[in-house]
Amino acid sequence: MFRIPKPLRPEAPAAQSASIWAESSGEIPQPSTSFCSSIMPECSTGHAQMQLEEKNRKKNRKKTFSCSFKGWSKGEKSVIMICNLWQVFFVCHELEASMRKLISLALAMLMLLLSGAYAEDSFTIAGYDHKDTEHVWTENFFFQRMEEVTGVHLKLLQYDTEEAWDAAKAAMLAGTQELPDAFFKANLTTRETAEWYDAGKLIDLKPYLVEHAPNLWALLESHPEWMEAVTLPTGEIVALPALDEAQFTNAMWINSVWLQMIGKPAPTTAEELTEVLRAFRDRDMNGNGKRDDEAPLTFASMWDLRFLAHAFGINANDYYVTTDENGKVSEILTTDENRAFLTWLHQLWDEKLLDQSGFTGIRDMSLSMSDEKEVVYGVALSSSPIQLVDVESLKQYTLLEPLTYEGKQVYRDLTGDVIRGTFAITSACKDPAALLKWVDYLYTEEGFILAEAGREGEEFSVNEDGSWLWETANQEALNSVLAEATLRSGISMPGYASVAFQQKIDDVNTKHVLSSLMRLKEIDSLPYPLVYLTREQQTRVEELIWNIGRYAERQMVWFVVGDVELNDETWAAFCEQVKALGMDEMVEIWQTAADNQR
To answer: String of b and e for 448-471 (b: at least 16 CB within 10 Å)?
Structure first.
């Protein structure tokens, strides 16, 4: 079974506005079945049966039943335990009076202690989880199980559209809506993080981390670059991250079956790739009798295509800047390498080697709508080919390693290991330590597994060799499992993703994609380190990229498709306008931020 990765989005604010850009085991000890059924057969069986029927009603999928306290609230557990003890008491009715008095006293004391389960404080968390994930927080097993592990009870406020979440955040910041205790799956931008902290709405978590989030703190200390990425310029840690060394990125996938058919090895340079694409174009590669239904290289935007710039030695982020080994920041838009890259793209477009629907923002799915098993792509730019072809065809696609330029390989690491802004505690929280204890569990392997795969024996099982697989072999049923018992899909959540666990999945397709991306990780690198800008810097950068991005993306598309001929005159005009829009100032800001981070 394959978990489809979330689509990739560009990081720059302008990218989201320009139409030509792509939208980028810690177990609680459980009583045995024999204990429950022998001490309290009617109560345990009746409650367990109702629990099982309710689960089956909601989930419509097979569940293995065991009599345990899993999924019960603290109040329910308290009632059951008290019932157990009262039955023991009445069984002992023939004991001496002194013994009965002793048991009565013990029961009274225990009931007093258990009553605390009802008086325990709870916390409210709010966040964004898109409705497409089908997650319903109030029904998802993840939160119930986290309460069992941590003892922290949460009231859940879920927003299932970006518009609703943005509106709620704006109201909270303005003071017209009550603050929750914390944000979870917060999707906070670097600007929002600094803005909310400056407004006194979010608190600095750094003083709490050593004592109350030791697992996260150990990870940050052992990876200084992660610590840098989550620290504000003034030294605070306000928002906690998702940490994942196996992040999906926009990779090149080539159809290995087609490659064998044309008798060519995997291309290693731009010139060799051009020859391979020509061979794909000139033959009926999928053998359906048509020579015009295949796309030699498919993409979805200029943003997608810029991942091919590595073939000319370019590794830049969405602000068009890069950093060399000495920490010097420079822009790539006006370089000779970028001109050569755009000239090559125009050649590919003119020869119909590029998907002619690529600049519409969506791939031309009509190419394969008539037969979902029909393969129409030679090379694809995507985080995974599963987004483009059916599962059966997935095995045809292998990772095309980065092309070489002047003997070197470079490739853009899209996100790095750190996704920032996933969790934050507000000034309304009276006990930050308790919430940090809760979230810190997610930075353990056990916590990751709970969020990623659910519970062993219920959602997944482990083989003798240590590999694991989903309990269901049906993709539709698996989608239900992912929606109702796991939470990692969709918007990034706090925690540390265990690469070891991900690699042990007993699924050929998933392992194939993951192992390929881990190979790419040995080559790719971040064009620019993850740093926080000051509020003033962030404001100015957003102004600059809005103008530079809209102009540069549009102009580069025109160069590629031939609407504007790329010659000395038009290139000089392009460079002049990029400079006039403030590219040099952009470089200065990023250089200052990088220098201050050292």
So the answer is: bbbbbbbbeebbbeeeeeeebbbb
Q: Where are the alpha helices (DSSP H) in 213-314?
A: 214-222, 224-230, 256-262, 270-282, 302-305
DSSP line for 285-316: TT-SS-SSS-EEEE-SSHHHHGGGGGGGT---
State which H helix or E strand residue 451 sits in.
Answer: helix 445-453
The whole-angstrom separation of Cα 474 and Cα 476 is: 6
- Band of pLDDT at residue 53, cut at 50, 70 and 90: very low
Both tokens of 352, joined, read 């119909």
- What is the pTM for the complete model shown? 0.78
Reported as a single tens digit per residue, the pLDDT across 103-155 is: 434 443 443 344 334 335 699 999 999 999 999 999 999 999 999 999 999 99
State the helix-helix crossing angle for 568-580 and 583-597, rounded to 10 degrees: 60
> CA–CA separation, 188 vs 196, rounded Å?
10
Q: State the CATH class of domain 251-412+533-597.
A: alpha beta
User: What are the domain boundaries of the chain?
Assistant: 33-119, 122-247+417-476+492-514, 251-412+533-597
The DSSP code for 143 is: H
Q: What is the pLDDT of residues 403-456, one digit of tens each?
A: 999 999 999 999 899 999 999 999 999 999 999 999 999 999 999 999 999 999
Predicted local distance difference test score (pLDDT) of residue 187: 96
Fold of the 122-247+417-476+492-514 domain: D-Maltodextrin-Binding Protein; domain 2 (3.40.190)
DSSP state at residue 321? E
Contact between 451 and 493 under an 8 Å Cβ cutoff? The reply is yes
